[in-house]
Design goal:
Strand content: 5-15%
Number of helices: 11
CATH architecture of the largest domain: 3-Layer(aba) Sandwich
Distance between the termini: 61 Å
CATH topology of the largest domain: Rossmann fold
CATH class of the largest domain: Alpha Beta
Number of domains: 2
Shape: elongated
CATH superfamily of the largest domain: P-loop containing nucleotide triphosphate hydrolases
Structural class: alpha/beta
Order of helices and strands: HEEHEHEHEHEHHHEHHH
Radius of gyration: 23 Å
Number of strands: 7
């Protein structure tokens, strides 16, 4: 093989190899989304979120997460957090609202959203965040859960435990999930019943949630909380509706949906605002 052949092969390999990710400009904004193929951190100029004061019925979780985030933003130790529980009760909204409140208080803190499907690339992401030592990052994964044959959970350990390098001191991880142990209960029972050693069959996956220092539970809201959410939205957007009409329509709306949650409250309010001729931005 000639030198020319080797040069052509080397050039072809360089074309096939992805170009290294340019150094992100973390001063451009406070929010980013991690993408792969190719690796990049896309800045988000405007985050879709609601004000923390509009999140009703989650006072204890709100105060706990806010204080934990403040500690981290100030350079102190803090715990990774798992927000788990009922659908539509504001888990992801709380993470984004807490970040906004901490930034508004003058603490420099970046939020980076990582999708569950991109967990295998998390080591590469952590390398970029670790290198930006002058910044502190809240790494956020929404709707995290794992199926029976899902191996993505092994990548998550790199965030929670960090391996031999340890988790970067400037990175904190928050995740939301409908499942307390990040895997379906029927899958846990099936593995226990069919495994040779039932106690070890699901230990690796179940213990993953134990690696979160904070567990914050979200439970279905009461009707009073549901109505308070809607009243809060109305007050924030300057919509005035007679109380008896508001209550009757809101209760009918949740009855047709067969559920009651913060998401259902927002969906009713969007419909109400349109009928009242008030334009609102989507949350």
């Amino acid at each position: 093989m000639t030198d020319q052949d080797l040069a052509r092969i080397a050039a072809a390999l360089e074309r096939l190899a992805p170009a290294p990710m340019p150094a992100p400009d973390f001063t451009a904004t406070d929010a980013f989304v991690w993408h792969t193929a190719p690796d990049r951190l896309e800045p988000v100029p405007q985050v879709s979120r609601v004000a923390i004061d509009l999140l009703v019925g989650v006072d204890r979780s709100r105060d706990t997460l806010l204080e934990n985030t403040r500690h981290f933003a100030r350079g102190f130790s803090a715990n990774n957090a798992l927000l788990w529980g009922a659908r539509g009760m504001g888990k992801s909204s709380l993470v984004k609202a807490v970040h906004a409140r901490v930034v508004a208080e003058g603490h420099p803190l970046k939020i980076v959203e990582l999708s569950r499907e991109d967990l295998p690339s998390v080591q590469r992401l952590l390398a970029h965040l670790r290198a930006a030592k002058e910044h502190r990052f809240l790494l956020f994964c929404d709707d995290l859960s794992f199926s029976h044959d899902d191996q993505h959970y092994k990548s998550l350990k790199a965030v929670l435990d960090g391996g031999i390098e340890g988790r970067p001191e400037n990175v904190l991880f928050y995740a939301t999930s409908n499942r307390r142990h990040l895997m379906p209960r029927d899958m846990i029972e099936n593995e226990r019943s069919s495994a040779i050693n039932p106690s070890e069959a699901v230990e690796e996956k179940v213990s993953l949630s134990d690696r979160f220092g904070l567990w914050l539970g979200f439970h279905p809201c009461s009707q009073d909380d549901y109505l308070d959410m809607i009243r809060g939205y109305c007050a924030a957007h300057g919509i005035s509706v007679p109380e008896d009409r508001l209550r009757a329509e809101a209760v009918e709306w949740q009855a047709t949906r067969g559920s009651r949650s913060g998401r259902v409250a927002w969906q009713f309010f969007c419909d109400l605002a349109a009928r009242e001729g008030v334009r609102i931005s989507a949350a």
